[in-house]
Specification:
Elements: H1 10-23, H2 27-42, H3 48-59, H4 65-108, H5 112-140, H6 144-158, H7 164-177, H8 197-204, H9 208-234, H10 240-251, H11 259-272, H12 278-289, H13 298-344, H14 349-378, E1 382-387, E2 390-395, H15 402-417, H16 422-440
Antiparallel strand pairs: 1-2
Helix pairs in contact: 1-4, 2-4, 2-5, 3-4, 3-14, 4-9, 4-13, 5-14, 5-15, 5-16, 6-7, 6-14, 7-14, 9-10, 9-13, 10-13, 12-13, 15-16
Length: 441
């Protein structure tokens, strides 16, 4: 007899959050896809509607939205300890890998074998992003208004470089103004069958969120204090005070993810603080794009080099840890302070319409990320074509990279054709990338 599904224990959730952290390659679109597959599709812990409701709120916050989404879902399932565990385990694997790679880069320079492994991963991640786009679009876009808003968001980002916050806030306002146009399925239609385990638990215990809210509020305020404490303590000290202050500022202005602020970070870190050179900044971005965890971990690389050039390896480790703390502590504070309020408003029609509008725009955001990422993985050169006020990225066809294209096709066959799991697809593509690089090189 098939065992009845049960609400996940904290230990079971820990194993899944660690798995999500280990598999979260390729930026926010791929990370959200991994999370959705693990907690919605495979385990039925969370419904499509609640997953997208949480994602919509996280898209409105500064900072890495995938980290905040993991924290939000962890809090919903197991309270403050669940939120902390989910958020920390989402970031920790990538942070450990980035610290190791930063040490290797600072002492030995670029290592070809590491680059070859990550090349295969990057090609697999491209297919994963495409799969995420198809899945989210299928479940989140219902009706012409939602499709139209997704299309407008994509064009605004891809062709007119409209700032990400403006796109999201405009979608929020449209959904709020005409909730009936989006609310009928805007959060994604649930699959037929029994409700997701979390939704069933909340239905059986309507006061669950209200009981969890006071602890979340206390945790949010405590996290804010703990975030600001090292900034105040170190202000005015050379290097360390600059690291604490600069990356704290980044934590509250990174609307739209890492790409939205990387130009500013590079300018300040290279030109003003002189922590690293422009080629080193690009190398750090390449490392961050191919390690698990949020892309904003590129800031950890910058903080490591700043500390390393001041005090050697120990200074680099200190700069890395300090950067991580002031970058990610606000994520937990924002979720613990805001999530209980958002959950209480879950059934209000205008809020549902507003967040459903954001859901539609998110599909356009993921499509833009997929296009941006795909062009730069498959082609060595991309040029910008200006048509009036619009600027479109077009590939230089002669610069197609056959190895990258072949690995992407391999990943597509494994994922779509053979239906292999994410871990197997990433492992096979990483091994294939290394083998091909050794043969060609």
């Amino acid at each position: 007899m098939k065992p009845q599904p049960h609400f996940p224990t904290f230990a079971e959730a820990l194993r899944v959050w660690l798995r999500v952290g280990l598999l979260s390659f390729g930026g926010p679109a791929a990370q959200i896809a991994v999370m959705h597959r693990e907690v919605v599709d495979d385990r039925h812990w969370v419904s499509d509607a609640r997953f997208l409701h949480a994602l919509n709120f996280c898209m409105l916050l500064p900072g890495p939205e995938a980290t905040q989404l993991a924290t939000y879902l962890g809090w919903l399932m197991h309270g403050v300890k669940g939120g902390i565990a989910a958020g920390v385990l989402f970031v920790l694997p990538g942070a450990v890998v980035m610290l190791a790679l930063s040490m290797i880069y600072a002492t030995l320079g670029e290592v070809p074998i590491v680059a070859a492994l990550f090349f295969g991963l990057k090609c697999a991640v491209l297919v994963l992003v495409v799969e995420a786009l198809l899945r989210v679009a299928r479940r989140a876009l219902h009706g012409a208004p939602a499709w139209a808003l997704a299309g407008v968001a994509f064009v605004a980002l891809a062709a007119f470089a409209v700032p990400f916050p403006i796109v999201v806030l405009a979608a929020l306002a449209i959904g709020y103004a005409v909730p009936n146009a989006f609310a009928a399925g805007g959060h994604g239609k649930a699959k037929q069958g029994p409700p997701a385990l979390l939704d069933a638990a909340l239905a059986a215990d309507p006061d669950r969120i209200a009981r969890m809210a006071p602890a979340a509020r206390r945790a949010g305020l405590l996290t804010l204090a703990m975030w600001l404490w090292p900034v105040v303590l170190l202000v005015g000290t050379p290097v360390w005070g600059d690291i604490a202050w600069f990356f704290s500022k980044m934590a509250v202005v990174t609307f739209g993810g890492a790409y939205a602020v990387l130009a500013y970070v590079a300018q300040e870190a290279v030109t003003n603080y002189r922590w690293l050179t422009a080629p080193e900044m690009l190398a750090g971005l390449g490392l961050a794009e191919t390690t698990p965890g949020p892309l904003i971990l590129v800031l950890q690389f910058v903080g490591f080099l700043a500390g390393y050039r001041d005090s050697g390896i120990l200074g680099g480790v200190g700069g890395s840890v300090l950067t991580l703390w002031v970058t990610f502590a606000p994520c937990f504070a924002f979720i613990f302070l805001g999530a209980p309020f958002v959950e209480r408003m879950h059934e209000q029609p205008r809020l549902k319409g507003a967040l459903a509008g954001v859901t539609a725009a998110v599909v356009g955001v993921i499509a833009n990320l997929a296009l941006w990422f795909g062009l730069r993985v498959i082609f060595a050169e991309v040029h910008h074509l200006s048509i009036g006020p619009a600027t479109i990225d077009l590939p230089v066809l002669a610069t197609v990279q056959p190895l990258a294209l072949g690995l992407a096709v391999l990943a597509a066959v494994l994922l779509f054709g053979l239906k292999l799991g994410l871990a197997k697809v990433l492992a096979v593509c990483a091994a294939a990338g290394l083998a091909l690089s050794l043969l060609v090189g």
